[in-house]
Structures are given as structure tokens and as C-alpha cells.
Amino acid sequence: MKDKLLVLGAGESGIGAALLALSKGFDVFVSDFGKISEEQKKTLKTHSIPFEEGSHDKAPRNPKIVVKSPGIPDTVPIIKELKANNAKIYSEIEFAYQYTDAKIIAITGTNGKTTTTKLIYHLLNESGFNVGLAGNIGISFAKEVLENDYDWYVLEISSFQLDDIETFAPDISLILNITPDHLDRYNFDINQYADSKFRIIENMSMKGSFIYSEDDQNIKKHLSKRNIKPWAIGFDHTFFEQGKLTIPFKGDSYSFNHLPLKGPHNEWNMSAAILAALSAGVSPEDIQAALPSFVGEPHRLQFVKEVNHIKYINDSKATNVEAAFFALQSFDTPIVWIAGGTDKGNDYSMLHDAVERRVKSIICLGTDNSKLLAAFGDQKVMIETQSMEEAISLATNAADTGEVVLLSPACASFDLFKNYMDRGDHFIEAVQKL
Where in the cell is it found (predicted)? Predict the structure, then answer.
């Protein structure tokens, strides 16, 4: 009799896990408490995989394995019930890892994950590596394992995915930074959040490499509490000077110029990516040749348009305070800042100095702006709106020649938009009409 495997959540990762599980001989059932897209339903029907949506009523309660969407917390009733029945609860990352012999580069951190992941992939791919890209970046690792035979994978990994690993052991791991985010899932305790991030190294051996920021105080604090088995490689702000990045590696030092990314946060991202590429065996010469052709990530400090000498910048992916802090630090001219959305337990105190020095006025774009108003109402002129079009109009009226209109919300997007991409697309659309 086939082993039962339950997939909870029918998003990209869930469907990928279902297809891989089917190919490995499991009796698969997919259950989603929300609505399943028509495209995903078609895929499930094509492969004769039974499913339900809108509830978990039909989901088997005695599966051998459960592959859980990272968005589902352990506190929901069905997870408690499945755990009581001794089901193994895996993330899609853990499940897919069990079916590949490829080498893994895994990247986690509060901010910069996607940019760094894509840059590492770009450096390896341009250097001739047989490499795939997957994970929290929006590409199913399980589906890639099913359909391709790569020698290397570059994976963006969230803390939620790391919460449900058992054997996952990357060959090269990176922790870029740890700052307060998603604390509602970790009892509002940054130490629990950091523990989750550090799970990326818990199964690694001495043969692996662990790359981390020496400038990040939370990383340093948690490093001191752990026995680190892999070769630990730190990077810091001293690597970058006057447009040139100098990387010490294995007793040598390599300098890189013609760098593709701007902003202080990207200095760390590029340092981490280059160290990962060197650790994977890419030559410094191939790295330098590949760097200039890298295109940055949409919705991350993305220049949209200049109108009447006012620059409009889309940083919709800045869904937490730390990301907004780096965005505000990236401009020397006065900023009209569009902020707000779904608050995730944010502490805005770290932004006070940057707002005082760099921000001219604040447009609050959200259904509940009370925390933003309380944080900055004594410092700056603040205007509320629930319309992106009105936010752009208000910002344009507030900005003068040579200034910047910056969407960098410091909040999630789900109050007014589908996701941060939808929010960024609305910003771009409204700016393009100017």
C-alpha cells in the first residue's frame, strides 16, 4: 500500500511538492483552506491528484508525511492534530532535498535575500555552472528537482521554511542579517526568530562554508552561543570603498569594480554573493566578467521615472523597518516618503534619525496608519490616504525639483494590495501616468 502524503497549501511550493511526491509513489492529497487558482486546479486534475479548497475537512489525518506551506503556523488546529498523530511535518525545501544529490547554496536573512540569491545564481550561471534557482524566490524547489538535473541549486530560504527542516544541509549557507520581522510567528521574541534563521547551519558538516555579516549584532550574539561546524567566513562594511569591493578569501585578496547595485545595503549583498561564488569555485576573473550584466530585482529600489526633475523610486519589497532604513539611507536629496500597510509588530525607533535628516514629508498609505502617525507625527508633515493614485498625487505636490518620491512602506501590503508586487505595480502604473 502506498504511503499517504498530505500537502497543505496549493501555492507554487505545494503544487511542486505534490507532483514530486506523486512521481515517488506517494498517495497524494492536496488541501488548501483558501481558494486554489484555476491554473493550479488544472495541474492537479491533469495529474489526477485529489484536492479540496475552502477547508481541511477531507484531508487525511493519518498521513506519513505532511508538506506544509510556509505560511501556515504550527498553531492552527490541523497541524496540532497531525502532530498528535505522529505525522512528519516538512517544508517543501526539506522534502525536495531528500530527492536530489545536487550541491546547495542556501541564503537566508531578514533583508536582501532575493537580490543576493539572484546575484549568486547569475555569477554561477554566467560562469558555466549547471545551476538552478528556486525556493522562497517564488520557484518550487520540488518541481525543479522533478523536472531538471542540476549540479547546483541556489535557494532563497525563509525562516518559515527552516522551521520545518530535518535533514536539510546546504553545502554553502548564508545569513545576511537578522532584524525584527515576522515576530508575530515567534512570540514577539527576536531570539526565537534568530534561532530559526540559524537552523540553516544545524546539519552542515566541516566540509561546508558558512557566510555571515560581521556587522550584524544579532548574528554575532547568536554565533557566540553555537558550535559552528562549517568553515565560517565573515564580511563587513570595510570590504567596500570608493566604488570598489575588495574580498579577502583563502589568504588572497580580490578587487572588483563595475558593480551592478547601488545603495549601502547592496554593498553587503554583493560581498556575500561574491564570497558564495568564490566558495563554489567560480574564479575571480569570471565573477568580474559577470558582475556588470546583472540586473537588479524589481520592486527593490527600482527607478521608475523622472518627471519635472523629481525621481520616483519603487521599493515596495521593503516590507519591514530595516529594509526601509536602508532605502532612506540610499539618497542624499530630500525624500517624500510613501509608507504604511499591514504592521507586523514594527518598532520605528531606528528610523527616527534618518527621517529627521532625509525625509521632507510622509504619505501614509494604509487602512490603519496609527503607529506611523504616533511614531513620526511630531517630526514631519503626514498625510493619510488609501489610494495609490492619490498617494502619488500628494507626493508629487509635496516634492520639489531634484527631490525623490520613495515608496518604501516598512509594512506588509495585504491591507490594500494582493502582495508587495501588486503594490509596486500600482505605484509604477500611477507614476507612468504623470
Answer: Cytoplasm
pLDDT at 418: 93
**CB contact at 8 A, 31 and 63:** no
Does 114 show up as a binding residue in the annotation?
yes
CA 384 to CA 369: how far, in whole Å? 7
The CATH number of whichever domain residue 427 belongs to comes to 3.90.190.20
Q: Do 221 and 333 belong to one domain?
A: no
* DSSP 8-state class, residue 378: T
The CATH code of the domain that includes 274 is: 3.40.1190.10
Angle, CA of 429, 316 and 373, to the nearest 5° = 105
What lies within 8 Å, CB to CB, of 41 at 6+ separation is 51
Q: Which domain holds residue 404?
A: 302-432
Asked if residues 321 and 346 have their Cβ atoms less than 8 Å apart, the reply is: yes
**pLDDT, position 297:** 77
Q: Is 110 annotated as a binding residue?
A: yes
In the Cβ-directed half-sphere of 144, how many Cα atoms lie within 13 Å?
A: 26
Q: Which of 353, 329, 351 is nearest to 340 (CA)?
A: 351
Here the cell at position 174 is 548564508
Strand order in the sheet with 252-256: 240-241, 244-249, 252-256
Taken in order 383, 384, 385, 388, is the CA torsion positive or negative? Answer: positive
CATH number at residue 59: 3.40.50.720
Per-residue CA distances from 303 to 188, 306, 307, 313, 363 (Å): 34, 8, 12, 5, 19
Q: What is the pLDDT of residue 326?
A: 86
Assigned C-alpha cell, 18: 505534490
- H-type helices in 180-236, by residue range? 190-198, 217-223
State the DSSP H helix or E strand holding residue 23, giving kind and residue range, or none if neither. Answer: helix 12-23
The answer to whether the annotation marks 113 as part of a ligand binding site is yes
Please state the domain count of the chain: 3
**Cell match 504550527: residue?**
74
79-101 residue pLDDT tens: 999 999 999 999 999 999 999 99
**pLDDT at residue 344, as a whole number:** 83
SS3 106: strand
DSSP, res 410: S
Q: 348 with 376: CB under 8 angstroms?
A: yes
- In one letter, which amino acid is 254? Y
109 is an annotated ligand-binding site residue: yes
Was 296 annotated as part of a binding site? no
Q: Which stretches in the chain have pLDDT values below 50?
A: none
| Together in a domain, 314 and 287 | no
